[in-house]
């Protein structure tokens, strides 16, 4: 039958429209079914939600400090209204035993006003300063009865100086000379009875914009961890080159001193250039061709594994990102946590590490330990290695650490931890965690453990075990699961360090327990639900925003801005969010001549300050 041209055009238009709709529906389905897209979309949605949820003052400006997530949640006012007013005079605070240390040189007097600057602390806390919601100074061994202002904390590093950069200071050279003066103290070639050295790896990338506060904090890391300790720690600035202009650089290129000098001049402030180690994705591809995955989210620790291969002088590697801050003496924090972890017995260590210690509920650490022990169902606790099941396509090439027989009650006491996490270590099975089923080249039933964010201390042993398995088998899990999972498979010691976490909302402590530990306070511990409180579930995400340390929150940055008295940022917006002057905070006060005085605490994330 002959059809008119108009009818034919209508049919073709309809078919074209139907095809277009099918394509759109397929793309939407594919996007939502892909865990990578869900992961990054959720982050984008989170930032958009945060921006819309912020309240405005009458002038229409966003008031970062007055954000209240829900109407029925009140802020703890004393959190924001404390200062050093009325406190006793500050004193020089040095938690390091220097009796066996050959004192090391710091920056020249021209950069310290001709005097030796020191870190000062106030000998008491401001009245009514709230206690930590989770963890405690007394647990990990840091001093919780003193406080710091931005001047007492960063005065030694130039916070009140007009000069922002110190181009004539060479922190790398100072660090190396300090180690050489004290190298007789350290185990560098297997000597028994000598101290092991550790590295602090500060992770970054070439697009990072160095601001004054980044300089201050990096100076404090080198001065307090390395110079003050006589070279016990070495600070390494590890920079990933992500730009297209560096895409063709090979592993061999990163041994070219001329190139490295050029990269340092381009991307690193002069004073830190001798601390820098550069790499790009090609380095990781050469190391791990079977893995087929080299991005940061999936393989955050491949670069640290690479570093461990070339730095056998270090027994452990602390890794933190450039958005990490510590209000307090860096050595006290990192060293105290390492010493605390060494004292922990292995019995129920995985179960303890999956839960927050909440002082208002558990009362004491010993009680917390007993509660976990008594309430862990028989046979459900982890003791010794939990390797992947052997199949026809997979068998572990490295023998797991065997259980001692009989198992002593104090097994693990005096043993350095292979994994120390600054967040709980939990089992994602059945949790809905976006990377729960990412077990590349592992059997599907392989047990996992995960601990976001990617901050912690890792032994050279656990890093090289992961390295060897990735080389031999191409096995991998998501970055935040990598080291805890390797430790689980091989029966290594892994622990969550319960450092003080603060929370600025007035919520009943039993409710906090329910939300963040995934069960009613006092109920039997259920390992199958150990992850329940750790997920960023939509109904709980608002509570996570008001913590001082987590994968993503608001409070860490807000507190830090208030701590350093930052009136406004150098730009009107940060990551799409406006930030208010410091006078706009919950107490409505301005400190004038007084400064906020905070106890030592870890903060994450703190960006663009």
Outline of this structure?
This protein is α/β, with parallel strands linked by helices and 609 residues long. It has helices at residues 5-33, 35-53, 137-140, 150-154, 171-182, 212-227, 257-267, 281-287, 302-310, 330-342, 349-353, 359-362, 365-375, 460-473, 482-490, 509-517, 541-544, 555-563, and strands spanning 91-92, 120-121, 197-205, 233-240, 276-279, 314-321, 325-327, 419-421, 456-459, 494-496, 573-574, 577-578, 601-603.
Structure description:
Residues 573-595 have a biased composition (Basic and acidic residues). Keywords: Membrane, Transmembrane, Transmembrane helix. The chain crosses the membrane at residues 12-29. Residues 41-61, 377-399, 573-600 are annotated as: Disordered. The chain is an alpha/beta fold and 609 residues long. The chain has 2 domains: 66-340 and 546-567 and 593-603, no CATH class; 344-408 and 416-496, no CATH class. Helix content is 31%, strand content 9%. The chain has 18 helices and 13 strands. The protein has helices at residues 5-33, 35-53, 137-140, 150-154, 171-182, 212-227, 257-267, 281-287, 302-310, 330-342, 349-353, 359-362, 365-375, 460-473, 482-490, 509-517, 541-544, 555-563, and strands at 91-92, 120-121, 197-205, 233-240, 276-279, 314-321, 325-327, 419-421, 456-459, 494-496, 573-574, 577-578, 601-603. Strands 5-4-3-6-9-8-10 form a 7-stranded mixed sheet, sandwiched between helices. A two-stranded antiparallel sheet has the order 1-2. Helix 5 (171-182) runs parallel beside helix 6 (212-227), helix 9 packs across helix 14 and helix 14 packs across helix 15 (482-490). The longest helix has 29 residues, at 5-33. The chain starts with a helix and ends in a 6-residue tail after the last strand. The relative contact order is 0.14. The model is unreliable at 23-73 and 568-592 (pLDDT under 50).
